[in-house]
Automatic annotation (TrEMBL):
Signal peptide: none
GO BP: any one term: glycerol-3-phosphate metabolic process
Keywords: ATP-binding, Glycerol metabolism, Kinase, Nucleotide-binding, Transferase
GO cellular component, one term: cytosol
This protein's pathway: Polyol metabolism; glycerol degradation via glycerol kinase pathway; sn-glycerol 3-phosphate from glycerol: step 1/1
Catalyzed reactions: glycerol + ATP = sn-glycerol 3-phosphate + ADP + H(+)
UniProt key word Cytoplasm: no
Domain of life: Bacteria
Protein name: glycerol kinase
EC code: 2.7.1.30
Domain Carbohydrate kinase FGGY N-terminal: 3-240
Length: 485
């Protein structure tokens, strides 16, 4: 019995058909346009999101049927549509910074502590709440329509569920709800006070279900297929990496990097500006995670290619970095769009330190790849400080950048910890497929699925402790100067 995973990401929509053996089979991927109406604004056309999802699903199925569908998606991105399913505006994407001013106002009102205590998040434009408030404020007639119960809000999963079920189901799962900054992660309910402060009627919010809950069925892909798994993409990758036990940790290297540490039934409050988030909610049981979000990871390689033009293709970065002069270190702080966790410095911009007349493409490439390791090391230290019982841990990695052995070796060196790369790299889609597959009883539960997880390669730290701490000190000094300056 095949399971279809729909992975709706920031730049493309993908569909992957998984077989009985839980291995990825036929897949299809479609990119769609990004809209940047103003500096710092990022939008998607919701129709593009839906069209590319439906088309890629059809292509992956290629006439076959699936026993169930699992959905995973870019998180935090906001769509608002009317009763006829017509979006009232483009989707406002998670990367969009237009609501920085409203976030400053909320902080000035002294709301940060309470909002963090309830939602696990810090006040930042990254999350859905202020984007939704912006739409209600700026789209003609939106507030009146919302108050009359005529508009629906959803993250991308809800938008897809609504369309797949032809308007029968308006729902989301707990992992997506917890990224809105409107959801009380302890009570497991929308927070009426935060909604009231932002003028968001409760009636427009989706029903929040378990990640392996029942999200209706679709008849748009041949036959009737149940929608039985939904999770935000980083949480789905946590599942796909089988990080079920407290203390297990994964990091996904796409455009950005998102590290999630499973903390079990305990919602750990961060003292180091990490996020407290829901890792998954299965059969009513919530498992929490600490999350560190870095905005620039793979994007730094795109910068080498498209900005500096010193490589032709992403895989060229590693061989170039390997030719760098051993005695000539550059430190790159890739704060191209500010810095995320644990610094949260939206106004910071990138900087490079240590330039000499001998600094060339190879040294830039090495500094770029190393910056990903350094940023991950900052997240790991924050996690250890927040949750000392984390102890010695192994980092499970996935995403495009993990194909580079050199980058993974440096990551292990600078963390001083083992780094495990799995055989199946499609961990995000696999996590969504697992939710749906186990929900219908076709795939094993957490234990059996953990047993099936297979290692491709383990990277063990080889750097001497003295060298490691020297490099980390240089990095932290560079970050302090970047944020300060
Ligand atoms: O929080 C944003 C994250 O969910 C986006 O992931 O893979 O679509 O860039 P991705």
């Amino acid at each position: 019995m095949s399971i279809l995973a729909l992975d709706q990401g920031t730049t493309s929509s993908r569909a992957i058909l998984f077989g009985d053996d839980m291995a990825p089979g036929r897949s299809h991927q479609l990119e769609f346009p990004q809209h940047f109406p103003r500096s710092g604004w990022v939008e998607h056309d919701p129709a593009d999101i839906w069209r590319t999802t439906l088309e890629s699903a059809g292509a992956a199925l290629a006439g076959e049927s699936a026993a169930a569908i699992g959905i995973t998606n870019q998180r935090e991105t906001v769509v608002v549509w009317d009763e006829d399913g017509r979006p009232i505006h483009n989707a406002i994407v998670w990367q969009d910074r237009r609501t920085a001013g409203l976030c400053r106002t909320l902080r000035a009102e002294g709301l940060e502590e309470e909002i963090t205590a309830r939602t696990g998040l810090i006040i930042d434009p990254y999350f859905s709440a202020t984007k939704l408030a912006w739409l209600l404020e700026h789209v003609d007639g939106a507030r009146e329509q919302a108050e009359a119960g005529k508009l629906r809000f959803g993250t991308v999963d809800s938008w897809l569920i609504w369309n797949l079920t032809e308007g029968r189901v308006h729902a989301t799962d707990a992992t997506n709800a917890c990224r809105t900054m409107l959801y009380d992660i302890h009570k497991g309910a929308w927070d009426e006070d935060i909604c009231a402060r932002l003028g968001i009627p409760l009636s427009m919010l989706p029903d929040v279900r378990d990640s392996d809950g029942d999200f209706g069925e679709t008849t748009l892909l041949g036959g009737t297929i149940p929608l039985r798994g939904v999770a935000g993409d980083q949480q789905a990758a946590t599942l796909g990496q089988a990080c079920f036990a407290p203390g297990m940790l994964k990091s996904t290297y796409g455009t950005g990097c998102f590290a999630l540490l499973n903390t079990g039934g305990e919602a750990v409050t961060s003292e180091h500006r990490l996020l407290t988030t829901i890792a998954y909610r299965l059969a009513g049981q919530t498992t929490y995670a600490l999350e560190g979000s870095i905005f620039i990871a793979g994007a730094v390689v795109q910068w080498l290619r498209d900005g500096l033009k010193i490589i032709d293709a992403a895989p060229d970065a590693q061989p170039l970095a390997e030719t760098a002069d051993e005695g000539h270190r550059l430190t790159l702080v890739p704060a191209f769009t500010g810095l995320g966790a644990p610094h949260w410095a939206p106004e910071a911009r990138g900087a490079i330190f240590g330039l000499t007349r001998n600094s060339g493409p190879a040294e830039f490439a090495r500094a770029a790849l190393e910056s990903v390791g350094f940023q991950t090391a900052d997240l790991m230290s924050a996690m250890k400080a927040d949750w000392p019982q984390m102890g010695e841990t192994v980092l499970r990695v996935d995403g495009g950048m993990t194909a580079s052995d050199w980058t993974m070796q440096f990551l292990s060196d600078i963390l001083g910890a083992p780094v495990d790369r799995p055989q199946v790299q499609e961990t995000t889609a696999l996590g969504a497929a697992w939710l749906a597959g186990q929900a219908i009883g076709a795939w094993p539960g957490p234990e059996g699925f953990s047993d099936a997880w297979q290692l491709d390669r383990r990277f063990e730290p080889q750097m001497e402790e003295g060298a490691r701490s020297k490099r980390l000190t240089e990095w932290r000094d560079a970050v302090a100067r970047t944020i300060g300056g």
